[in-house]
Give the backbone structure.
Amino acid sequence: MVNVGSSGSELSRVGCPTVGSPGRANIMDNGDETNGSVALKACRICAADIPASARKCRHCGSYQGWRMIFGVTNSTLSMLVAFVAVSTAALPVYAKYFGRRSSFLDFAGVSTQGPQISAFVSNTGDRPGLVTGASLRFSNVRAEAGGLIEFAVVGEGGGFVVDPGKSLLVRFEPKQITMHGVPQGQHLTSARRCEVTLQGQEFNGKELTNIRPLSCPDAFTTLAAAEAQLSASKGGGRS
């Protein structure tokens, strides 16, 4: 039995927490006091004994309820924010090195000079592209009479390579003329539509065609010059 006037040391000796003592504070803050005892449970993270009603472990600082799934420390949160920032900044690099890479050829500025035609070719991709040839077609409404001139790239047997980011003037020379609906020995004299088809191959193997209109007077000038050049060469000419 303890006297009311007993000192704090005597109270401590018999196991009674005094006001302001650590034991009393923990009971008041983290648990329920029933008949002088506190119900305990093991922390889900560090397994230390904590009051059964505690929502957070006073030893390791981890939450005990549903918040333990989402609970992160300040340092972990800072690392996540830094990771997201770096990943966002690196997206263009990822796209460049891990995305689909190829060439993208664009044809423009078709013109004629004698038997040759020329065009500006731009490669906006990140891989080399290949210009393989061209053709000049003469068409009429009913397709009764028409013709086709096939061209090869000047000085390049298999095609002309356009490097990434480059724009070059590519020239084509005639290699074959085919006419339909025109008697042998006569010439095609009119056409309602004349157009140049430019041909290429992208780095990924995709075949590319680009059709450009051409004025028929220029087309007929090219046709006459091409017939003269092929007639003078061996194995060439009109078929």
Observations:
- The mean pLDDT is 75.
- The first strand starts at residue 33 and ends at 34.
- Helices lie at 8-13, 22-30, 67-70, 74-89, 91-98, 216-232.
